[in-house]
Task: inverse folding
């Protein structure tokens, strides 16, 4: 299998303080990779670098062998990378349906134009309604996003990412901020949703082992900005290093 | 050599009032996160107050007027903070900007209805109405006095912000408002105080330029003082007083050099400098790169 | 379908065009002509401020740029049709705005707001410095507006001409509001990070909004110039920049027609209160303060308020924060 995403010697520092140090990473097409690590390990920074929200201080990011280091996040999104955020980001004044519509529209590589009326995109609206049904959001279609509950916000953001039919889906802490019950339900729903789309490559960050076990095939453990361990979820979960990192952090 | 000294002195003298205005603006931004457009109104009222209160040409009378102007504008500033900005603090920065802009327009209008639209002038104080020679260069006494004044104010601000308990509180609030409040600092009182200091400085700056500029409503957003002050706080980095000092003096000198070398371009150097900064260092001299710049590239 | 095509909007303009001259004449009709141009100015400003969430304190720059371009064209090529002059004015302002925005948008929030103000003041300074812009005196004398080769001669003709141009321009902006580009603008306003992650070129959309807003503001400025026959630095002052924000806010930017209503209210109240307030700054400033503090959603929100039921989720008409990031904590007050 060829690598769909490659990080070569990627480092990122803020005002001279390193957050990610010399990370090399290869993600195969269709793979499901989890990046884990204690707080401050550099997961979010690495994620932002992959998504194109900031440029690495050194190193290269390649998608399908093509250097995209200098591409900004919107360019990468159009090229087939969709993401969710740790705290869901939505168009707060738009309805749930409009949010998904815009995602479907841009996901289909359709540009935005003055002369394109919203009405003229029949097929995008159809796609939107299907996605809403899949995500169980039909009843909330006309609710304005700013008045959604936390769980629904996450579900909506996920629906927006999936409707874009990305080649690479980036999920940043998909169950962050949820209670135990909600997190389990959300994980199950997410797994069902993702299993319909086996062609997508998925990279996620998570704290929750439950999420990692049910969604990931391979796990990368980060600490102090470096990759310290990688392997199957079971291997990483049982490894001494992992225990030391998490328990050590808890004990201190 | 003579030229160099006189150009330098003129530049510094030009930079000082800009620094005084900008230091207040940047302090207020640092603490309240409000871009106080109303500062132009404060500056204008400071200058007008001198025209109304000055008695005779003695230096003491002039300095007295300057203090009265500073104090008067401080009162206006405190009232504005309590009546307007207090109400808007929770509403977000756009609304605060609009509130500040509204206050600016209202203050300018108020000043016009009190003092009219005819330009007024103030004479130099008798003691500073001449010039002296320094290493062969003719230096205006008032220019020299302006620089001395700038040194006093810069030192005063430095002492206030680093050596007093008020300064510690101001820095705490500007660093993290919520945390400061949790630590028992009365954030509202600190904000009002900072606003008072900023307004006082704007009033003093307006008063200090009264002998060198004709005084009418155009001063409120004048291309000689207020706009450069706004530019200075960008170039210096929003919230940074030392940045404002360096940027104000540097821009004053650049402007003074350009006035000497290419008079037709004078007045535009500030804009050229700000354009260059935008291209190469949008966060300013002392600012740190914010996330927005990263994202929007 | 008709609704979407803006037919009610065009019908409204047609009705106004016919009715106004029946009810008003002379100076009142002329006030309506001015108000019509301001309706366009307000709608154009709302593209930037209301839809895209970019606050500009220097809209007078483009309004004035339109007027000065008109004056210069009238002086150099008086035979050019009136509408062609408007198109040139719009193009000039749009290009300048796009260039300016490309650089200025490297900053955001407070810095961007300052820069918009600076732009307007630079233009103001240029008017005094560049000899052919005629400084304080400005341009005066009636401008010829040629339609199909023959010049307009009466206030009534001027009214029909102005309202027709405004109707077409506002209709174009109406189409924009219901287009995918318009939706992208709102997305950028709501959350630029989300918009970028969806694949919207945030900076591109912002620059486009700025250019569109500037272009139509210039048309409005040129229309006012054609109507009044005078172009002076007063058209580029911060008072104008403030007034147009007031117009947008009085009406409320939650609805398309909000800024239009605001513009009419502003122009008429200024005309009627001209004897009360000698300086319009006080009036505009106080009005803006009252709106910002007491009626942040503008006049269009009053019906909902009277009915006593707030809409379930209040759509933000004033973006709660113009800056993309959290106001960055400023630790360097003293270094």
Result:
């Amino acid at each position: 299998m060829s690598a769909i995403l490659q990080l070569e010697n990627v480092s990122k520092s803020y005002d001279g303080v390193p957050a990610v140090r010399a990370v090399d990473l290869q993600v195969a097409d269709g793979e499901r990779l989890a990046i884990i690590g204690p707080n401050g390990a550099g997961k979010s920074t690495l994620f932002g670098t992959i998504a194109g929200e900031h440029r690495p201080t050194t190193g290269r990011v390649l998608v399908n062998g093509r250097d995209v280091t200098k591409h900004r996040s919107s360019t990468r999104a159009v090229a087939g990378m969709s993401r969710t955020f740790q705290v869901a980001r939505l168009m707060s004044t738009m309805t749930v349906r409009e949010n998904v519509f815009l995602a479907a529209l841009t996901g289909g590589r359709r540009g935005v134009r003055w002369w394109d009326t919203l009405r003229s995109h029949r097929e995008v609206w159809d796609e939107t309604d299907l996605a809403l049904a899949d995500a169980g959001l039909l009843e909330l279609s006309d609710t304005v996003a700013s008045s959604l509950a936390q769980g629904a916000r996450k579900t909506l953001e996920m629906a927006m990412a999936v409707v874009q039919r990305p080649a690479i889906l980036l999920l940043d802490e998909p169950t962050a901020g949820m209670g135990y019950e909600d997190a389990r339900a959300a994980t199950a729903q997410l797994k069902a949703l993702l299993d319909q789309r086996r062609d997508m490559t998925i990279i996620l960050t998570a704290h929750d082992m439950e999420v990692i076990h049910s969604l990931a095939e391979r796990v990368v453990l980060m600490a102090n900005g470096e990759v310290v361990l990688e392997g199957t979820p079971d291997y990483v979960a049982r490894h001494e290093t992992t225990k030391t990192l998490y328990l050590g952090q808890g004990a201190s | 050599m003579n030229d160099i000294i006189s150009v330098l002195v003129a530049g510094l003298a030009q930079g000082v009032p800009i620094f005084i205005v900008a230091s207040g603006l940047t302090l207020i931004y640092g603490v309240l996160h409000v871009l106080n457009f109303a500062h132009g109104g404060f500056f204008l009222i400071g200058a007008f107050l001198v025209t109304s209160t000055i008695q005779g040409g003695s230096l003491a009378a002039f300095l007295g007027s300057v203090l009265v102007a500073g104090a008067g504008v401080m009162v206006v500033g405190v009232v504005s903070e309590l009546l307007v900005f207090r109400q808007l603090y929770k509403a977000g920065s756009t609304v605060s900007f609009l509130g500040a802009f509204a206050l600016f327009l209202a203050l300018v209008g108020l000043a016009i209805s009190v003092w009219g639209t005819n330009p007024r002038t103030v004479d130099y104080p008798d003691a500073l109405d001449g010039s002296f020679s320094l290493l062969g260069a003719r230096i205006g006494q008032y220019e020299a006095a302006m620089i001395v004044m700038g040194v006093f104010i810069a030192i005063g601000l430095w002492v206030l912000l680093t050596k007093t308990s008020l300064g510690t509180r101001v820095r705490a609030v500007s660093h993290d408002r919520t945390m400061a409040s949790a630590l028992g600092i009365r954030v509202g009182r600190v904000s009002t105080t900072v606003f008072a200091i900023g307004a006082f400085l704007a009033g003093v700056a307006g008063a200090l330029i009264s002998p060198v500029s004709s005084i009418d409503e155009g001063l409120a957003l004048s291309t000689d003082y207020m706009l450069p002050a706004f530019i200075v706080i960008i170039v210096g980095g929003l919230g940074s007083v030392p940045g404002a000092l360096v940027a104000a003096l540097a821009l004053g000198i650049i402007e003074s050099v350009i006035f000497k070398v290419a008079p037709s371009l004078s007045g535009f150097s500030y804009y050229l400098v700000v354009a260059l900064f935008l291209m190469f260092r949008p966060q300013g001299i002392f600012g740190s790169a914010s996330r927005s710049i990263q994202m929007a590239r | 379908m008709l609704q979407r095509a803006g037919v009610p909007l065009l019908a409204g303009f047609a009705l106004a065009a016919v009715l106004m001259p029946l009810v008003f004449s002379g100076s009142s009709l002329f006030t309506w002509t001015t108000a019509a141009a301001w309706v366009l100015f307000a709608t154009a400003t709302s593209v930037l401020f209301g839809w895209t969430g970019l606050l500009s304190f220097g809209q007078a720059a483009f309004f004035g740029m339109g007027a000065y371009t008109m004056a210069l064209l009238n002086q150099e090529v008086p035979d050019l049709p009136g509408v062609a002059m408007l198109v040139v004015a719009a193009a000039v302002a749009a290009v300048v705005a796009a260039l300016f925005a490309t650089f200025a948008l490297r900053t955001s929030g407070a810095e961007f707001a300052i820069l918009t103000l600076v732009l307007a003041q630079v233009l103001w300074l240029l008017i005094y410095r560049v000899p052919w812009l005629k400084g304080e005196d400005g341009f005066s004398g009636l401008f010829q507006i040629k339609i199909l080769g023959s010049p307009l001669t009466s206030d009534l003709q001027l009214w029909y001409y102005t309202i027709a141009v405004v109707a077409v321009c506002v209709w174009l902006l109406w189409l924009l509001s219901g287009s995918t580009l318009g939706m992208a603008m709102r997305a950028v306003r709501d959350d630029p990070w989300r918009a970028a992650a969806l694949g919207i070129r945030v900076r591109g959309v912002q620059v486009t909004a700025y250019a569109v807003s500037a272009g139509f503001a210039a048309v409005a400025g040129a229309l006012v110039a054609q109507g009044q026959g005078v172009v002076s630095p007063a058209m580029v002052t911060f008072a104008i920049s403030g007034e147009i924000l007031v117009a947008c806010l009085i009406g409320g930017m939650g609805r398309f027609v909000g800024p239009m209503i605001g513009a009419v209210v502003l122009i008429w109240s200024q005309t009627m209160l001209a004897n009360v307030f000698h300086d319009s700054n006080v009036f505009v400033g106080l009005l803006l303060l009252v709106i910002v503090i007491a009626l942040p959603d503008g006049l269009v929100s009053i019906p909902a308020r009277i009915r006593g039921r707030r809409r379930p989720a209040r759509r933000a008409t004033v973006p709660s924060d113009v800056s993309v990031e959290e106001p960055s904590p400023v630790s360097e007050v003293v270094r």
Notes: Chain C touches chain B through 64 residues (CB under 8 Å). Confidence is low (pLDDT under 50) at residues 310-335 of chain C.
